[in-house]
Amino acid sequence: MKRIFTFLSFLLLGNMQAQEQFTVYFDFDIDEANESSRDKLSKWISNNPNVNVNKIYGYTDSVGEAIYNTDLSERRAAYVYDRLKSAGIAVDSAGLNGFGETLATGKSKADRKVVLYYSAKIIVVADPAPVNNKPGTEFSQQVSTAAKGEKIRIPNLNFYNNSNIILPESQPVLEELLAIMRSKPLLKIDIQGHICCQVNEENAISRRRAEAVYNYLIKNGISSERLSFKSFGSSKPVYKLPEKTEAEKVANRRVEIEILEN
User: Fold this and answer.
1) Which of 51, 95, 131, 262 could in theory staple to 118 by disulfide, Cβ–Cβ 3.0 to 4.6 A?
2) 17-120 matches 138-261 in fold
3) Burial level of 46, CB count in 10 A (0-12/13-18/19+)?
């Protein structure tokens, strides 16, 4: 009973914590923070290593087209996310969004910003999780039996809109790919990005998404000699463009691995 009470106390304490904010500012039409804000962000990261970032929201001023400003605000939010992620700040569950000029008061510098919302991290020591003895998934089995030159789609790998930032719910398939690479030390793969819906690719998104998977594996100890990545844009669609259904769009918008050695 005492243990249950202690655990509930932790939960109540967590719920009572006030959510705090930190703002990063940007120069006009730029998706990287200006020098002053970069320094302040670095100092904030140093002073707050043990926080949970809950939301990262990007904004712009009212200059320009609304569609462009939404894209710019998303790229600003992605920039801050990447800085926090690379510094080891807990952002995997953060809500990432770009609101463009929706809150702009005009051409003010104060509107060109990213606001991150965060709270202190509470560490609760839990009982060890039971060992997972479930058989390998279909993806693992496909990779294990694949021949050289075969291409396999990474399932359930999704990204924030117009971004190379992987959604938190896609973490399990990344961990599975990592486990496969660790269990098969001779396996070499080429990671290949594809897009849907448009002939002319914007922001090199397919390459950046393939590179995101590459970087994840590198950061977790997989040798770069076993990995490469490239992008094909929309040049190798599963279904002919323009796609007729949402399912066809999903099939074309993918990251695959090609088996180089197995």
Assistant:
1) 51
2) yes
3) exposed
Contact by Cβ (8 Å): 232, 192: yes
Measured between alpha carbons, how far is 6 from 124 in angstroms, rounded to an integer?
10
Domain locations in the chain as residue ranges: 17-120, 138-261
User: Residue 105: which pLDDT band, with cuts at 50, 70 and 90?
Assistant: confident
The distance in angstroms from the start CA to the end CA of the chain is 53
What length does the chain have? 262
Candidates 186, 197, 160, 193; CA nearest to 260 is 186
pTM of the model: 0.58
Pairing of strands 20-25, 113-120: antiparallel
Cα separation, 173 vs 156, in Å, equals 7
- For 174-201, what is each residue's pLDDT tens digit? 999 999 999 999 999 999 999 888 888 7
Please tell me the predicted confidence (pLDDT) of residue 119. Answer: 83
| 240 phi and psi angles, rounded to 5 deg | -60, 140
- CATH architecture group of domain 138-261: 2-Layer Sandwich (3.30)
CATH architecture of 17-120: 2-Layer Sandwich (3.30)
Nearest alpha carbon to residue 19 among 59, 53, 58: 53
Binned at pLDDT 50, 70 and 90, residue 136 comes out as: low
Cis? peptide before 242, omega within 30° of 0:
yes
Q: In a 3-state reduction of DSSP, which class is residue 29?
A: coil
- The mean predicted confidence, pLDDT, of the chain is 83
Predicted pLDDT at 121: 60
Return the structure tokens found at 204.
Answer: 């090199």
| Sign of the alpha-carbon dihedral angle for 125, 130, 134, 140 | positive
